[in-house]
């Protein structure tokens, strides 16, 4: 099934990108590029660049390339040709215009989903290379306005939505109050030292999806988990600085998260249903801090739910009836291999499951990941165009509901469903679990 | 012609072998050394099991998703690489040279098989060039060197075929065969042909990351 593609008309003007460009000279640009390449990259990049034989097999791995009717400009290697390869080979000819184009490509035309890595016979990590382009753009001060705003919020408040400390605590109290109407003795423990689990969420939850905290609390209560939330910074596990190229802030965020868990002396961190946050805590941010694996056990919600079901801490009362499909989030599937655990949860909770094709490691990105949705409204039309194959994939399932345990995927798919007028709703796994589980296990 | 032949089979042969072996050794060792000094974390993620598993998949025809999506390229690609790597070592004429030089010998491929494989390698080179020219996303990223490399491979194979069948001008072709093979050998460490070495490094690292850190398949 091929859906109708809309076309872009007006050029996108991004103030965040434009603001710094006018002051950039080729000399300044060259200094920054050389500095990043010499001090922040090494043999890994060298090996990738030397090994690529320009075979073009990565193209089919990219949903941008496929959705834009196989336009060469959107192939993974095509994006490297227009960005990093130019930075390296064009020596002193890198102008502000080249940087503008590179920023647009790196921030808004690649979701860093790593699907193309599986299509390269040599396993060349294009997402890593696009990350270097973003790093260079960040060092030049050329970042899209909206994602930069988020990075500023991280820097000032250690969360991505300018949530003040009292607002966070107030939201928890408000959710606790609401939840006690359902379960009178329910608590949402804040700052409980020595709890088994520190639960962390992303800032959009207290900002406008507070019911997810309510549901998590209900789940914890029913499963009898000794858990807590931190009242101090560290409660937000999200990390848009990782995607803006601001590695220093990325490191601070991950450190604050770990330190909150350390201070509360918990046994492990359970992260809510978010993919990119998991990438930062488990992989990128963690490594920036010098850890091979996180210093405290970190599990994604899917692993946590799986364990609860497997050990019988929660039991299912009645399975969910509508036809459901599952969208594998890149950062927990290609990032942690949680696809089978997710399917186990679905098998336990849903009656009618329809597999999406392709699936598991080969699933298409939702188009929102890698900070692309965080680049904001100016790029929404392009993001929708780039999601055509995702829309077709969703529509072909004929499902009523798509489950996805990731905030970015959730928002991205919601946009796709509206844009392509697909009669389907998107939901988190916790919604399914709290709807189907026994209330008195 | 004789002087050129002597040059090609004497100093130029040693020069090309030195460039090839030296270049590969220097590049390989320096990559490992640089990784040890500046990106040592790479070693902490390496997994023999994941790397082997991934290489088995990528080394088996149609063992990866991308191969199943590109049937023609997979068939041509595999046969091309087998021919390219095996022919120089298992041709009767080449084994004779090894025998004359070092007294070593091993089984050879029959003449008809060698001819077929040689012609196939030549056709595959043309296939790669035309694929570059005709597929838009591949043409978009191709550099002059990408077109030159298949030609660098084509010349020694085509001239070798010509010379071995004593077709008109075979003497010139014989010298051309030796010289062009030396050029090809020397070019390996300094062009994208280094994928012959670095491809293993990148595959080992990526498959380790995928298999043992991210617990996902990379094929």
Describe this protein's structure.
- The complex is a heterodimer of chains A (441) and B (219).
- Chain A is built from 22 helices and eight strands.
- Chain A has 441 residues and is an alpha/beta fold.
- Chain A has three domains: 129 residues, Orthogonal Bundle (Fumarate Reductase Iron-sulfur Protein, Chain B, domain 2), CATH 1.10.1060; 150 residues, no CATH class; 120 residues, Rossmann fold, CATH 3.40.50.
- In chain A, strands 2-1-3-4 form a four-stranded parallel sheet. A four-stranded parallel sheet of chain A has the order 6-5-7-8, with helices on both faces.
- In chain A, α10 crosses α12 and α16 crosses α18.
- The radius of gyration of chain B is 20 Å and the shape is globular.
- Helices cover 81% and strands 0% of the residues of chain B.
- With 219 residues, chain B is mostly helical.
- The model of chain B has no long low-confidence stretch (mean pLDDT 94).
- The longest helix of chain B has 28 residues.
- In chain B, α1 packs parallel to α2, α2 runs parallel beside α11 and α8 packs antiparallel against α10.
- Chain B has one domain: Transmembrane di-heme cytochromes, Chain C (Fumarate Reductase Cytochrome B subunit), CATH 1.20.950.20.
- The interface between A and B is large, with 46 and 47 residues.
What are the SSEs and their pairings?
The complex is a heterodimer of chains A (441) and B (219).
Chain A: H1 15-21, H2 26-40, H3 43-51, H4 63-67, H5 76-82, H6 84-89, H7 96-108, H8 126-140, H9 145-157, H10 165-182, E1 197-200, H11 204-208, H12 211-223, E2 227-228, H13 241-244, H14 247-264, E3 268-271, H15 275-288, E4 298-300, H16 301-310, E5 320-326, H17 330-333, H18 339-349, E6 350-354, H19 380-386, H20 388-397, E7 401-403, H21 407-419, E8 425-427, H22 429-436
Parallel strand pairs in A: 1-2, 1-3, 3-4, 5-6, 5-7, 7-8
Chain B: H1 2-9, H2 11-38, H3 41-45, H4 48-59, H5 65-69, H6 71-90, H7 92-102, H8 111-134, H9 136-141, H10 144-164, H11 170-187, H12 195-213
Helix pairs in contact in B: 1-2, 1-11, 2-11, 4-12, 6-8, 8-10, 10-11
């Amino acid at each position: 099934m091929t859906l109708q593609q809309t076309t872009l008309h007006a050029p996108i003007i991004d103030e965040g990108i434009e603001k710094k460009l006018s002051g950039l000279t080729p000399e300044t640009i060259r200094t920054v590029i050389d500095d990043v390449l010499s001090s922040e990259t090494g043999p890994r990049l060298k090996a990738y660049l030397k090994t690529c034989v320009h075979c073009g097999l990565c193209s089919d791995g990219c949903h941008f390339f496929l959705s834009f009717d196989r336009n060469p400009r959107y192939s993974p290697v095509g994006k490297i040709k227009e960005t990093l390869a130019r930075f390296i080979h064009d020596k002193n000819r890198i102008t502000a215009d080249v940087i503008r184009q590179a920023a647009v490509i790196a921030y808004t035309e690649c979701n860093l989903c790593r699907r193309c890595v599986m299509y390269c016979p040599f396993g060349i990590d294009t997402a890593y290379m696009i990350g270097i382009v973003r790093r260079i753009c960040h060092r030049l001060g050329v970042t899209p306005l909206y994602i930069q705003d988020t990075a500023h919020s991280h820097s000032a408040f250690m969360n991505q939505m300018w949530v003040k400390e009292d607002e966070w605590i107030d939201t928890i109290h408000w959710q606790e109050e609401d939840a006690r109407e359902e379960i009178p003795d329910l608590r949402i423990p804040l700052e409980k030292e020595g709890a088994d689990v520190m639960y962390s969420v992303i800032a959009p939850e207290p900002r406008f999806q507070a019911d997810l905290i309510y549901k998590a609390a209900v789940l914890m209560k029913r499963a009898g988990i000794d858990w807590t939330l931190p009242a101090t910074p560290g409660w937000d596990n999200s990390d848009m600085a990782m995607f803006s190229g601001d590695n220093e802030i990325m490191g601070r965020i991950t450190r604050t998260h770990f330190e909150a868990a350390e201070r509360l002396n918990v046994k492990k961190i359970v992260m809510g249903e978010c993919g990119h946050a998991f990438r930062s805590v488990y992989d990128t941010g963690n490594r920036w801090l010098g850890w091979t694996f996180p210093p405290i056990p970190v599990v994604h919600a899917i692993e946590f739910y799986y364990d609860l079901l497997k050990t019988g801490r929660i039991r299912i009362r009645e399975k969910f009836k509508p036809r459901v499909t599952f969208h594998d989030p890149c950062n927990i599937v290609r990032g942690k291999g949680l696809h089978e655990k997710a399917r186990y949860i679905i098998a336990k909770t849903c009656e009618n499951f329809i597999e999406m094709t392709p699936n598991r490691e080969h699933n298409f990105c939702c188009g929102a990941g890698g900070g692309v949705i965080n680049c904001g409204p100016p790029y929404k039309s392009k993001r929708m165009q780039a999601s055509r194959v995702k829309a077709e994939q969703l529509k072909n399932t004929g499902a009523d509901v798509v489950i996805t345990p990731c905030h970015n995927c959730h928002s991205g798919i919601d946009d796709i469903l509206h844009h392509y007028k697909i009669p389907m709703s998107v939901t988190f796994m916790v919604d399914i679990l709290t709807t189907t589980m026994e209330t008195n296990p | 012609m004789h002087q050129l032949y002597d040059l090609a089979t004497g100093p130029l042969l040693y020069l090309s072998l030195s460039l090839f072996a030296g270049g590969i050794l220097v590049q390989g060792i320096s990559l490992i050394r640089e990784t040890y000094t500046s990106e040592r974390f790479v070693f902490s993620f390496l997994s023999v099991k994941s790397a082997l598993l991934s290489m088995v998949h990528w080394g088996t025809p149609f063992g990866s998703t991308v191969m199943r999506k590109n049937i023609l390229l997979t068939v041509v690609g595999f046969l091309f690489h087998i021919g390219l790597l095996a022919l120089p070592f298992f041709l009767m004429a080449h084994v004779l040279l090894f025998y004359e030089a070092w007294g070593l010998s091993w089984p050879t491929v029959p003449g008809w098989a060698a001819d077929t494989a040689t012609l196939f390698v030549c056709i595959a080179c043309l296939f790669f060039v035309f694929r570059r020219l005709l597929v838009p996303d591949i043409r978009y990223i191709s550099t002059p060197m990408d077109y030159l490399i298949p030609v660098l491979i084509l010349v020694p194979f085509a001239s070798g075929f010509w010379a071995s069948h004593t077709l008109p001008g075979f003497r010139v072709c014989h010298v051309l065969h030796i010289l062009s093979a030396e050029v090809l050998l020397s070019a390996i460490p300094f062009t994208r042909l280094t994928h012959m070495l670095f491809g293993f490094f990148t595959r080992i690292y990526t498959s380790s990351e995928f298999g043992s850190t991210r617990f996902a398949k990379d094929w």
